[in-house]
Amino acid sequence: MAETETKDLNQKVSALEKALEREKAARKMAETLLEQRSREIFESNQSLQTQMNEAKLQQLQLSFLTGLSADIWNADSVNNIVQVYLRRSSEFLNNAQCMFFQLRDEKTHWKLSSVMELENKYQQNDIDKEKIKTLIKSFQVDALLEAVKDAGGESTLQPVIAFTDESSEFQYIYIVPIFDINDNRGFASYLYSDHTQIDVLKLQTVESSRSMLAVAIQRQLATVNLNNRFKELKKTYKKLDDAQKQLVQSERMASIGQLAAGVAHEINNPIGFILSNYETLAEYIEVLNNILELYPNLAEQEAQNKLNQIWHDEDVDYIKEDLKELLSASKGGLKRVQEIVAGLKSFSHSNESADLTSFNLNECIEDSINLVWNELKYNCTIDRKFDDNLAPIKGSSGQIAQVIVNMLINAKHAMDSGGTITVQTQNIDDKVQVAITDQGCGISEENLEKLFTPFFTTKPVGVGTGLGLSISYGILKDHHAEIDVQSKVGEGTTFTILFPAYSE
């Protein structure tokens, strides 16, 4: 019995030992799994922290680049672009002390031409400013350029002692080349007191932003050049406009010179018969004065006899009728002189655009015909086909008269044997049309294309300058008018001009 109990006890102990071994093994496995899982969680946390840091840095990079892009594209000068870049990059680099160097090539050496120091709100006191100024004055320009050259023209991080012999609390300088334009080079520089302040990834981001800055500067310089070019073109245009006005006036005066003899003749005719009428009128006045002297003594027979004798001998009844005709003819002659002088004055006046007024084209054409009539009257006739209800046009009547005069003279020159010049006006929708047709020699098709080219003329040497039609074309364009030419060799030519009708 005792032996049986011992055996059972041993079996139980053995079972407990085996259970304990199994539990130890399970615990060891659990500890191993726990350690492995803890390591995985730690590594996952580390990865997540790295990702968060990278995301935060990327967010800072994105904020820096987008903010920089918006600011530099809105800057209105290269100086403002540089200031924006310095401010933005300094803030991005944890408020690093920032400066801008501009160097100028003096042919024999490079010289520091200007320094822009960004006002840093994190500077401790005025002593910091003085230290920075002292450091700037001691900077060796050649060493700075050599360092950038060795870096292949890219940004470079260098020890401060490489550029100055002066002692300084700043240990490192990050140099960023910004521009190289003509004989000027610009560099942004960031100063660090020790290596712990330096974030390499941020420095790389600043380096990447250089291309954006270069494009903004080039764009601004292009804008400045474009503005300067525009100003030059504006000045050139003004000179050309002044020259055009002088050319128009010169052509106008040349036309007046050609018409001077004819105008003098036109004025001489009415003046001649006015003087003749004046002599006759003086004789009539003497007769009338004799009659008036007898008037107080009309009660006496002798005075009556003398009055009857004078009345009969001088044919006073005829004088009475002739006086009306003399005065009427003289008035007409004076009016003719007045019209010629007014037309000449209007034609020669260099009307400016500020003097544009509405006027009747029929009246302008009539004035032009009067002005050149002495040129036309001997072998040309004018067939007027005027629309009595012609709408007014707006512009310079003097300049339009010059165009009409040129057309009439050209028509006369085209008809060696004389002929009829037809001038027709009419309203066409919202336009006013004038057509001038001659029966002359016509214009060949190849010459029609060159008709309005300055100095081109088909007239013989000494007849015309070749400027009349080109200047007329310019005047019509200024008046927003259209001109068309139809011609057949041997049959004649028609110039058709369409003006915009003017309405109040």
From TrEMBL:
Signal peptide: none annotated. It is an enzyme of class 2 (transferase). Keywords: Coiled coil, Phosphoprotein. It catalyses: ATP + protein L-histidine = ADP + protein N-phospho-L-histidine. Residues 6-36, 223-253 form a coiled coil. Its EC number is 2.7.13.3. The keyword Lipid metabolism does not apply. InterPro entries: HATPase_C_sf, HATPase_dom, His_kinase_dom, HisK_dim/P_dom, HisK_dim/P_sf, Sig_transdc_His_kin-like_C. Pfam families: HATPase_c. Residues 262-503 form the Histidine kinase domain. GO terms for molecular function: phosphorelay sensor kinase activity. PANTHER family: HISTIDINE KINASE, SENSOR HISTIDINE KINASE. This is histidine kinase. It comes from Psychrosphaera ytuae. The lineage of its organism: Bacteria, Pseudomonadati, Pseudomonadota, Gammaproteobacteria, Alteromonadales.
